[in-house]
Write a structure and sequence with these properties.
333 residues, five-stranded parallel beta sheet, 38% helix, 12 helices, single chain, alpha/beta
């Protein structure tokens, strides 16, 4: 099968989750013998030569393009990668606010307009499914749940866990809630190692102010893949207490390396662990601190969580689920 992957908007952050999802799925599909093309919009593409065209993210530009593309190749899939920090009602209002004749457009309105032209909408969780069906009005049957896979190599040896909590993200992104995690480490006296990108001097000063006077926290900078694997191997706990999160692939990778997982109750991440992770209220420093400390004091879901994650979220397992959707017969287009 020949599949075209298309980005719907520009990419700025070096750790962009949309890009990560697309590259991981590309690798998995290719391991099953398929051809996956990262479509270059500067090229003269033969759109009819693709068995499927799969868009990642959504934008006004994407909507206009899909309306034309549909008449050349109707096999169009979308991964909206929606990480909302607002209500379904809010989303529904946004998706109705617009008028093509008056050129009043926004990405949510544009996505609603192209519902008839999209064959499949790939969602990563029940949480995202609810937004797509109740917010945009997509039929449930058109929205298969296909979780993300881990894209990291499996550990080749077992290392004794050390008593520290790990967190990796765009650290000063408000959504990641790192300030409260740092406050929890100080209040509950657990070692916290942070890794990730700081995008400018302002963020550097911000992180320094959060860490000031806290002897329990260390910042290790932007991490290479080998550095990430080393920390995953040694960390007792990985914490992802985001204000809202779509999946949190770093937490999934940490589970593969034997970390216990503390994850936000907001959004879709907690669906991935089948009651083998502890959920927290991201607005509560005490909830975050007590939950991390519980794992630090000996409670664990490992190795069952590691075994479950490796089995259910491998590249090949998820790639096969993607292919199964592509070739299935419903809905008729």
């Amino acid at each position: 099968m020949k599949i075209g992957f298309i980005m719907s908007h520009p990419v700025f952050a070096p750790t962009n989750g949309v890009v990560s999802q697309a590259y991981t799925w590309k690798k998995g599909l290719e391991e099953l013998g398929n051809e996956v093309v990262l479509v270059n919009m500067w090229d003269k593409n033969d759109w009819s030569s693709f068995d499927f065209l799969h868009f990642f993210g959504f934008s006004v530009y994407m909507a206009d393009f899909i309306k034309v593309l549909y008449h050349v190749n109707p096999n169009i899939a979308l991964s909206p990668i929606l990480d909302p920090d607002y209500s379904i009602t809010n989303l529904k209002i946004r998706s109705y606010w617009g008028n093509r004749k008056l050129n009043l457009m926004n990405p949510f309105y544009a996505l609603r307009q192209i519902k008839p032209f999209i064959k499949w909408v790939f969602v990563r969780s029940e949480y995202e499914l609810e937004y797509m069906t109740k917010g945009f009005g997509f039929e449930r049957e058109k929205c298969p749940i296909v979780p993300l896979s881990y894209g990291i190599d499996l550990p080749n040896k077992t290392i004794d866990k050390e008593l520290f909590c790990l967190h990796i993200s765009l650290l000063c992104d408000e959504r990641k809630n790192v300030k409260r995690l740092i406050e929890a480490s100080k209040k509950y006296k657990f070692k916290l190692i942070l890794g990730g990108k700081l995008r400018n001097e302002q963020e550097k000063r911000m992180l320094e102010s959060w860490m000031k006077g806290n002897e329990y926290v260390e910042y290790h900078g932007f991490l290479s893949l080998d550095e990430m694997k080393d920390l995953y191997s040694r960390a007792r706990v990985f914490a992802l207490p985001s204000i809202v999160e779509g999946v949190g692939i770093v937490a999934l990778e940490a589970a593969v390396y034997g970390c216990d997982i503390v994850v936000t109750e907001k959004g879709g991440p907690h669906e991935y662990y089948k009651d083998m992770a502890l959920n927290v209220n991201p607005y509560s420093v005490d909830d975050i601190g007590m939950t991390v400390t519980r794992y630090m004091n000996g409670f664990t879901h490992q190795p069952e969580l590691q075994q479950f994650t490796i089995k259910n979220y491998s590249l090949v397992a998820i790639a096969q689920r993607i292919l199964d959707v592509y070739v299935s017969e419903y809905p008729k287009v």
